[in-house]
Amino acid sequence: QVQLAESGGGAVQAGGSLTLSCAASGRPFGGACVAWFRQAPGKQREGVASIYFGFDSAAYADSVKGRFTISRDKAKNTVSLQMGSLNPEDTGMYYCAVKKVPINCHTTWAEAYFADWGQGTQVTVSS
Predict the structure, then answer these.
(1) DSSP 3-state assignment of 43?
(2) End-to-end CA gap in the chain
(3) 16-75 pLDDT, tens per residue?
(4) Which DSSP state fits 118?
(5) 4-28 burial, b if ≥16 CB within 10 A, otherwise e?
(6) CA pseudo-torsion sign 25, 26, 32, 34
(7) Contact partners, residue 113, CB within 8 Å, separation at least 6
(8) Helix (H, G, I), strand (E, B) or coil at 112
(9) Three-class secondary structure assignment of 51-102
């Protein structure tokens, strides 16, 4: 089992930036598929971005393309989500998760396929 710890959430004004971080303990990410999800109040949780930790390939939801960047830090065993040009629609709880099996990382974001989840970190964007 991978233990996930998230950090970096906070409050910013529209147009600002934030960087979230997800650290793994217990087991290293290795060749894992790691994804970021978010959930706004009263809405379903949705996938935001994914990355193969070993291959360093990435994919993004249409709503964040060109604004968010997911990346890995092999030395620190962390996955980050750089968020820029934030707007109020980006407000929500952000979670990182590790897929049970590292296949179809960028094409299948169903929550049932992710075994390990972080506690979530709040992002609030004010207009």
Answers:
(1) coil
(2) 40
(3) 999 999 999 988 999 999 999 999 999 999 999 999 999 889 999 999 999 999 999 999
(4) -
(5) bebebbeebeeeeebebbbbbeeee
(6) negative
(7) 99, 100, 101
(8) helix
(9) EECCCCCEEECCCCCCCEEEEEECCCCEEEEEECCCCHHHCEEEEEEEECCC
